Amino acid sequence: MSTFVRGNKDLIKAINRNLILNTVRRHGALSRTQLTEISRLSVGAVSQITQELIREAWLLEGGEGDYTGGRRQTLLRLNPDAGCAIGLKLMEHRIVCALTDLESKVLRYQDLPMPDDHDPVTIVTALTEAVETTVSASGVDRRKLLGVGVGVAGVTYPQTGVVHYSPYLGWRDLPLAELMRVRLHLPVYIENDVNTLTLSEQLFGAGRHIENFVVVTVGRGIGMGMVLKHQLYQGAKGGMGELGHITFDAAGPMCSCGKRGCLEAFAADPAVIAYVRHSRSAQDAPRTLEDVIALADGGDALARAALRRSGEILGIGISTIVNLLCPSLIIVSGEGVIAGDYRIAPMLDALQAHTFNGLMDDVQVIVEATDDHAWARGSASLVMGKLFESPLIEAGIAV
Ligand SMILES: [Zn+2]
């Protein structure tokens, strides 16, 4: 141990700086005495490191806290303007871009069209422009930009920054993080888009302080993110949570993934639309989920049946999650929840009916419509996660 300490002075210092920053980040404003108590570092170390962090503008001094030794102590807090991050959500037809401060407050938001040509060079150019125009429109100093987080549908490898498979963009093994890093001269982090929403729920939403929870998204596809033991679960390399592609009926319809009978091929929005379109003339056939909902509102029995069937099959799919994991919370989200009780009520009934006896007693289900801000904000928080990550992980000593 002593050899390790002597040989790694810089690392020890980096760990202590990280500890101080994370303590202030987690607890809010703290006096130096409180910081010493919570961090268990020496008074001298806290004094030296906080002085350094104030000089570098990571911490701000201000306000007065507890009485210690007969005098009030000045409080230290994280400087939200010490840096900022960009979060991107890539969709088939749109790019959503959010600029956030260090406390993940959205400073600027942009919604841009995704180029029709999904060639990587074209997309990387569009993404680079999205980052630069968002920062310049915000008035924030570009030098404060610490990095970029990107959420992409499909199988992503966060460790290597590679998009292994993106069904909507038609990419396979694309080193997207590296391609963007070269253009932006900034660190770029890639993650599955449902995982960025899951991070957002964990940091700012219903998943705060929840040890085990699952996010299920319903829309164009059906996705899933998991927090287990307070950690985002990332599978072997990054691919996981493909709830939409568990086989519901091996002899069922073709799925967008090329396999047959996936849950998604029965229960996602395109399946609902196709079910209603099938029996209608070209003129009054619905094109969007909104069209189907409008028909259902008007009393159309087929539209209502399509939404009910989708909800039931979705409920069966989610019951499998409860049977396997029994998380304390399931958040059902995504653009498809706008169908409301036409879809959600049968989903909840099927969930009760198909879950193993008694397991649902311990599970809370929340249905919420999230906007694209939440996804993009989650992508930006990938940068904060790396920024405040333990130096031991970077040094390869801890995971
Ligand atoms: Zn599939």
How would you characterize this protein structure?
The chain folds into three domains: 2-78, Winged helix-like DNA-binding domain superfamily/Winged helix DNA-binding domain (Arc Repressor Mutant, subunit A, Orthogonal Bundle), CATH 1.10.10.10; 83-198 and 374-394, Nucleotidyltransferase, domain 5 (2-Layer Sandwich), CATH 3.30.420.40; 207-367, Nucleotidyltransferase, domain 5. The chain is globular, with a radius of gyration of 24 Å. It has 399 residues and is of the alpha/beta class. Helix content is 42%, strand content 23%. The longest helix is centred in the C-terminal third of the chain and has 25 residues, at 301-325. Residues 1-6 have low confidence and may be disordered. A hairpin with a 2-residue loop joins strand 13 (222-228) and strand 14. The strands form four sheets. Strands 6-5-4-7-11 form a five-stranded mixed sheet. Helix 5 (120-138) crosses helix 6 (176-184), helix 9 packs antiparallel against helix 11 and helix 11 (301-325) runs parallel beside helix 12.
